[in-house]
Amino acid sequence: MTASKPRALLALNWKMNKTPSEAGAWAKSLQEEMPPTDVELAILAPAVALPLVAAELYGSGAAFGAQDVSAHASGAYTGEISAAMLADVGATYVIVGHSERREYHGETDEVVAAKARAALTAGLRPIVCVGERLPEREAGRHVTYTLDQLRASLTGVSFTDPTTLVIAYEPVWAIGTGRTATSADAEEMAAAIRGVLAELYPDAAGSVRVLYGGSVKPDNVREIMDGPNVNGALVGGASLQLGSVLGMLAALA
Ligand code: PGA
């Protein structure tokens, strides 16, 4: 569907791991060891670690961001962090609608869409996560389920620059389980997702990056990103060790 593939994005979802000191030390090592690469690297760190990550990453060429954001702009929302606050510390990306937030924090598609809109309004790039659970996959309903979730999670979402929107397809059964979808599974869903993007954003669909996530590691990252519609990966477990991140960049070189 696209003449040329958009720049690949390797997004590192640290989840609730690494204290600010650990995150800063990791970012410093990355800054020292970052190889020349065509791949865009983004570290999605715990919010409290972002200022230190920003300082230590400086000059590395890697981007950073958060794992969640408030749907509200400001005000009486105790405990929440706004998109403007993330933008102010230099964040570029923010994950919205990760399956762990949907499952453990009751986030609905409506909330996810509101968070994506809030991120874009503040100049952040939302990484909107969608994906089926095992029952939908086993019933052969994974494509319909995921596309319905995608449409609902993009309600009212608009942008001028298509590189500001990122979609991550993460089948829940493949997250943290060591069970990876095949590259054919990833491409099947990425192509279907791009079809929906083409309906919603006819001029921009080819430039929106669609990532795959779920047990991606140095051994499989190249294969999983092989499909023409897969533009990167969202990596959890294998993003915690610098060696394995450098291994993924080497595999993609
Ligand atoms: P995983 O996590 O790589 O550990 O499967 C991916 C994610 O949850 O984003």
Give a structural overview:
Helix 1 runs parallel beside helix 2, helix 5 packs across helix 7 and helix 7 packs across helix 8. Strand 1, helix 1 and strand 2 form a beta-alpha-beta unit. This protein has an eight-stranded parallel beta barrel, surrounded by four helices. The chain has a single domain, classed as Alpha-Beta Barrel (TIM Barrel). The protein is α/β, with parallel strands linked by helices and 253 residues long. The mean pLDDT is 96. The chain is built from ten helices and eight strands. The radius of gyration is 17 Å and the shape is globular. The site of 2-phosphoglycolic acid has 13 residues, from strand 8.
Largest sheet: 8 strands, parallel, barrel
Distance between the termini: 24 Å
Can you tell me the CATH class? Alpha Beta
Bound molecules: 2-phosphoglycolic acid
The CATH homology group name = Aldolase class I
Tell me the CATH architecture: Alpha-Beta Barrel
What name does CATH use for the topology?
TIM Barrel
Strand content: 5-15%
Compute the number of strand runs.
Answer: 8
Low-confidence stretches: none
Q: Mean pLDDT score, rounded?
A: 96
Question: What is the C-alpha radius of gyration, as a whole number of Å?
Answer: 17 Å
Q: Helical percent range?
A: 25-40%
| Total number of helices | 10
Write the layout of secondary structure elements.
Elements: E1 9-13, H1 20-33, E2 40-44, H2 50-57, E3 63-66, H3 83-88, E4 93-96, H4 99-104, H5 109-121, E5 125-130, H6 134-138, H7 142-153, E6 166-169, H8 183-200, E7 209-213, H9 221-224, E8 232-235, H10 242-252
Parallel strand pairs: 1-2, 1-8, 2-3, 3-4, 4-5, 5-6, 6-7, 7-8
Helix pairs in contact: 1-2, 5-7, 7-8
Bound molecules: 2-phosphoglycolic acid.
